[in-house]
Amino acid sequence: MNKPKVLHLVIDLSGFGGAEMTLLRYLTATENAGASHTVLTLKDIASGPSVGAEIKKLGVPVRSLGMRGVKSVVQALPSFVRELRAARPDVISAWLYYPSLMATLMRPLLSSRPKVIWHIRSLPFVRFRDRPARWLAQRALAVFSQVSRVQIISNSEAARTAHAGIGFQTTPDRWQVIPNAVDTTLYQLNAEARTRLRASLGLADNVILIGAVGRNVPEKGYPDLFKAFGELQALLPAATRDRLHLLIAGRNVTLDTPSIAALVASTGLPHGRFHLLGARGDIADLLSALDVFVMPSRSESFPNALTEAMAVGLPAIATDVGDCRVVLDDDRFITTTSTLAGCLSTMIALTDNERQMIGHRNRERVKERYTLEKMTSAFDRAFGID
Fold it and tell me: Bridge partners of 316?
């Protein structure tokens, strides 16, 4: 029996975002992926390292519509229809809101009437005046979810609940939750990387390195993290607080970014206590250099960075957003923005052995629940692949 042909419609593959990485991990885990999967991007893929480049290495055909903004959507529609008709997919797998809306609107123009699957990877908390196009797309999809036979996949229960609140159909026959996966062979403690990276940062052996990963956007909660790190100094003995350093890796998280420089200054602590590395491609190694991971987010769907840190065997703290509580499964270290400093103090006060035991438990939880095998099998079933 021939496998169904699946066309993945995505906005862009030029970076390493969460949705794009999930698609890459799925295709990487799929034997001979190029035989039954193709990818169509709305925007051109930039040169250099990217998810798009990695997908091409797998032998998966990747094409682009060359869109450059909302105004170019109408101009690209004839090309879009031609691409879909030429591909004749059995399934259109649309990643995020705009591709989902476009796939739903174009389906009646296709004689093959492919099955349409929406991948909803975030929470819908956006105001019309801030992002009107996204707000309108969400509301249009909410209507379509009630009147058309689309299938919806999210990576968290939090996303299902939040979208139900704005009118999406979220019954079990329409909406399925497939958690993201972590490659635990890549994300594991690397003693050599830990030694090398800590040496490159000039860190003494007794430094307690607290770390976070994520781009500099409001939902990642960096103002709350810097505030808590400053408050933490008064909650610990001098001998302990003087050993604390903070590392963050993520786009626009550097001292050259004015908002980040202001946050550092607000703590009153010397710059040498902060290691703000910007975007990095070696996150698995960087996590090995940490002693404690913290996710201070104000909004999350599925917390990828938290799961990756747990896979490395780190003790972790997270705010109570999205599916963080479900993933971490340790109420001692689920916190709010106002109690983040106290939660960090509790973690730091533990012995090294106690933190290592927590980290070991975290890794075992990821290996049990968030494996590539489970995610890949779930996607295959949704796409109708035996």
Answer: 293
Q: Which residues pair with 177 in a beta bridge?
A: 154
Reduced to 3 states, what is the DSSP secondary structure of residue 63? Answer: strand
**Is 147 exposed, middle or buried (CB count within 10 Å of its CB: 0-12, 13-18, 19+)?**
exposed
Q: Which CATH number fits domain 191-369: 3.40.50.2000, 1.20.58.100, 3.40.1110.10, 3.90.199.10?
A: 3.40.50.2000
Tokens 């509790």 belong to: 346
Task: Kindly indicate the confidence band of residue 70, based on its pLDDT and cuts at 50, 70 and 90.
Answer: low
Q: Are 269 and 275 in contact (CB under 8 A)?
A: no
Beta bridge partners of 116: 92
Instruction: Report the b/e string of 324-347 with b at 16+ CB within 10 A.
Output: bbebbebeebbbebeebbebbbeb
Dihedral of alpha carbons 189, 191, 197, 202, sign? positive
User: What is the distance between the alpha carbons of residues 144 and 131, in angstroms, rounded to a whole number?
Assistant: 20
Q: Quick: pLDDT tens for 206-253.
A: 999 999 999 999 999 999 999 999 999 999 999 899 999 999 999 899
Distance, CA of 148 to CA of 361 (rounded, Å)? 43
Check the CA dihedral 62-64-68-71 and report its sign: negative
The rounded radius of gyration (Å) of the Cα atoms in the chain is 22
pTM across the whole model = 0.86
Please write the tens of the pLDDT for every residue from 155-188.
Answer: 999 999 999 999 999 999 999 999 999 999 999 9
Alpha-helical regions (H) of the chain:
18-28, 51-57, 72-87, 97-106, 132-147, 157-164, 191-200, 222-232, 238-241, 258-267, 283-288, 304-312, 324-328, 340-349, 352-369, 372-383
Does domain 6-181+372-383 bear CATH number 3.40.50.720? no
Answer yes or no: same fold for 6-181+372-383 and 191-369.
Answer: yes
Domain ranges of the chain: 6-181+372-383, 191-369
Quote the CA–CA distance of 68 and 70 in Å, as a whole number: 7
Q: Cα 18 from chain centroid? A: 3
